[in-house]
Amino acid sequence: MKILVINCGSSSLKYQLIDMENENVLAKGLCERIGIEGSKLTHKPAGKDVLEKAEAMPDHQVAVKLVLDALQDATYGVISNVNEISAIGHRVLHAGKYYSDSIIVNEDVKRVIRECFDLGPLHNPANLIGIEACEAAMPGIPNVAVFDTAFHQTMPEKAYMYAIPYEYYEKYSIRRYGFHGTSHRFVSKRTIEVAKLDPNNSKVIVCHLGNGGSISAVVNGKCVDTSMGLTPLEGLIMGTRSGDLDPAVVQYIANKEGKDVNEVINILNKKSGILGISGISSDFRDVQKAQKEGNHRANVAIDAFVYRVAKYIGAYAAAMNGVDAITFTAGVGENDAAIRKEVCSYLGYLGVTVNEEANKIRGEEVEISAADSKVKVFAIPTNEELAIARETRDLI
Ligand code: AMP
């Protein structure tokens, strides 16, 4: 069985074709600048040369057609017919309060994705366009929506309610939703397996630390809290996002700089975080290089990032009244031994001790806690595309 995984942005489309017999990626690629001048397809078939094709893509429908052509191409292709694709799994940002699991797309599902346009204004419209483009190009092949918010729907009210007038929750569904759910689901499940925990008696904290970052608290495989909120802006300090701050800061900047709320929120999303404090880059590697060279702001940025992660781990250990395992994942979590070590240096009170040699390993599944550690600590690579493919297979 072959599953096509699609992740549509407003002007991009990422894809992977995965053979579910062995979970190998047959081909992956990216359409860039859809609807803008200079569109380009980059197609990477396994074991073959890369195909780069500059071709006009006025909309996602054309992009999907180009992807299907590339997948069936005589030289760069990996299938001979689209009917070899059993289903298409779509990453969809927001399902509001409606879905706590992935679901086969029908008219109702599309209505919900549309209803959540306000909650995910940049992603949900693009996600729906991607689904409709696939329906048009591959009639009869099922589409599955895998939502970023779904895993977090098990959060109790006390975790998801904002302490604002209740009418705003009732009228506008303003509450915490959380994101990166596919990754948190995949990595928490894997943590329970590798730590050999009892799935029905387990407390896990997953630290998804990439360019975007979020932490979740998972009891018996179910999410009970997570650091992102109504939007991905809440929580950790991220590459370019501020994470938690006093909302009055928005008003203050707006008044001082003569900007409106939308402009300030844009600054908090795109120009803040590690980039904002350091003034150097949103990429941890650049900031760490500057830190080593003695740059004070780079040092503060990394220190503040680590401190916020450690505070959330403490909060979630308290929320769950204990923790059995903590797992680092995503770009920074999988690769950055220094950040992992720094975070763990705050966790002595939990009985965490680190195996320095194991912690040097990058990009692999590894236990980084020492044998005497009271809480097991892991680095586990996330694989959102594979998780989407598995959920799609399970549903069809
Ligand atoms: P992601 O969003 O999961 O792709 O993560 C992207 C971030 O991971 C980048 O901004 C980098 O700062 C970080 N990253 C990737 N590889 C490494 C590495 N080898 N060492 C440290 N940080 C890394």
How does this structure look, described?
The protein is of the alpha/beta class. It is 38% helix and 20% strand. It is built from 15 helices and 14 strands. The strands form 2 sheets. It has an 8-stranded mixed sheet, sandwiched between helices. α1 packs across α3, α7 packs across α8 and α10 crosses α11. It starts with a strand and ends with a helix. The relative contact order is 0.11. The model has no long low-confidence stretch (mean pLDDT 96). The structure holds adenosine monophosphate.
Described by its quaternary structure, the protein is single chain
The largest sheet is: 8 strands, mixed
Report low-confidence residues grouped into runs of 5 or more: none
Number of strands: 14
Q: What is the chain-wise order of helices and strands?
A: EEEEEHEEHHEHHHEEEHHHHHEHHHEEH
- Spatial arrangement of strands, main beta sheet: 5-4-3-2-1-6-8-7
Mean pLDDT: 96
Shape: globular
Q: Strand fraction band?
A: 15-25%
What is the CA–CA distance across the termini? 11 Å
Hetero groups: adenosine monophosphate
**How large is the radius of gyration?**
21 Å
Class by helix and strand content? alpha/beta
Count of separate DSSP helical elements: 15
Question: Which range best describes the helical content: under 10%, 10-25%, 25-40%, 40-55%, 55-70% or over 70%?
Answer: 25-40%
